[in-house]
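Students often ask why inverse folding is considered easier than folding. One informal answer: many sequences map to the same fold, so there is more than one right answer. In these notes we will look at a single instance of the problem. The structure comes first.
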């Protein structure tokens, strides 16, 4: 069984071919560079760029595989949540291929792509506890099965990746900010500044990063002679120290709330074995190390996708598409792309119950 997956929900145009033996048969990805000058993704520019590049990415994905379009069994596309102009490009491409090839179309929730990605290269079985941390989302979930999620907590304001990006911007480190902050944090003193840890003491698993970001802004402002944000005035070592303190505090917040979730997970899902982290921020090796310790301390196994499959990519969409397809969940061709699509919104339905059986 071979599934083609297309990703176009933010600023990566990507496609991949995977099979049910967990082999990645083909892969192509383009990270749009056009947004760098703006310090964030510009939706209209992203949509146009997806349109310009999707055909070339598909060609590249098949190149050297010895496969043709006729060899695939289904075509999947990230169909939300995301920037709708870009999502539409991927979805329409997948639907067109589906019609032309007479192969099923599988609408994949982008978040489910992140959620299931760790299962490609790890022996992760359902149910598992998931920390999903990206530029747009920050959630703690139990993944009960394909399409079945119990959400235990979420951010009430900024996503943690967004906070990394905003801190990086304040410090003049460019976009995306996460990798730059992580690199500098490695040379910084994480005890230098005490930063707030919003919601740390609440009994739920919710998170908040807006106050943490504002606290960093206030520190940055103290360096500026006229009170404006001016990273040019901050000594290099101080920038590293700020990065280290921010990364330490954000990680502490994530681990504390995940710790609460672990207690619930172990009690309600005693057969569960894994703590999984995924999404762009899961590339952060400092966070991965802390989560591994949390898992070890609780007698659970830590798993994460390889770093290159943490940020958006086509492989995770192809894989999630395959997981859905082999369960019999395919989508009608009038499926509408969804700019908002919570993972726990709807479980997949078999034929006759709103979905279409493959
Ligand atoms: O999953 P992703 O590629 O896109 C979304 O679905 O949002 O995640 C992108 C986010 C950005 O906010 C980026 O700064 C963050 O992931 N990120 C990191 C690291 N690498 C990427 N954050 C912290 N440390 C990293 N090494
Ligand atoms: Zn993503």
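Output (designed amino acids):
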């Amino acid at each position: 069984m071979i599934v083609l997956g297309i990703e176009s929900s933010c600023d990566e145009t990507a496609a991949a071919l995977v099979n049910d033996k967990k082999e990645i048969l083909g892969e192509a990805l383009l990270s749009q560079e056009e947004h760098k000058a703006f310090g964030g993704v510009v939706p209209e520019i992203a949509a146009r760029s997806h349109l310009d590049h999707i055909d070339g990415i598909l060609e590249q994905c098949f190149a050297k595989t010895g496969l043709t379009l006729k060899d695939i069994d289904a075509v999947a596309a990230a169909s939300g949540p995301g920037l709708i102009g870009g999502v539409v490009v991927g979805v329409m491409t997948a639907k067109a291929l589906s019609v032309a090839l007479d192969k099923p179309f599988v609408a994949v929730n982008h978040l489910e792509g992140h959620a299931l990605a760790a299962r490609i290269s790890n022996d992760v079985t359902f149910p598992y506890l998931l920390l999903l941390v990206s530029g747009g989302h920050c959630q703690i979930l139990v993944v009960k099965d394909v399409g079945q999620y119990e959400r235990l907590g979420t951010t009430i304001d900024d996503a943690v990746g967004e906070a990394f990006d905003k801190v990086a911007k304040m410090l003049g480190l460019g976009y995306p900010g996460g990798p730059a902050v992580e690199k500098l944090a490695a040379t910084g003193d994480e005890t230098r500044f005490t930063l707030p840890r919003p919601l740390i003491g609440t009994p739920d698993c919710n998170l908040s990063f807006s106050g943490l970001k504002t606290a960093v802004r206030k520190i940055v402002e103290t360096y500026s002679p006229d009170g404006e944000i001016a990273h040019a005035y901050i000594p290099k070592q101080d920038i590293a120290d700020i990065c280290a303190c921010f990364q330490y505090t954000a990680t502490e917040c994530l681990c504390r709330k995940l710790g609460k979730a672990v207690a619930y997970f172990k009690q309600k899902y005693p057969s569960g074995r894994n703590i999984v982290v995924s999404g762009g921020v899961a590339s952060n090796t400092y966070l991965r190390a802390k989560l591994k310790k949390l898992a070890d301390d609780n007698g659970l196994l830590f798993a994460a996708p390889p770093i290159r499959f943490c940020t958006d990519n086509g492989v995770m969409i192809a894989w999630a598409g395959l997981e859905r397809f082999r369960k019999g969940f395919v989508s009608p061709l009038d499926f509408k792309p969804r700019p908002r699509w919570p993972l726990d919104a709807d479980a997949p339905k078999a034929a006759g119950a709103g979905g279409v059986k493959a």
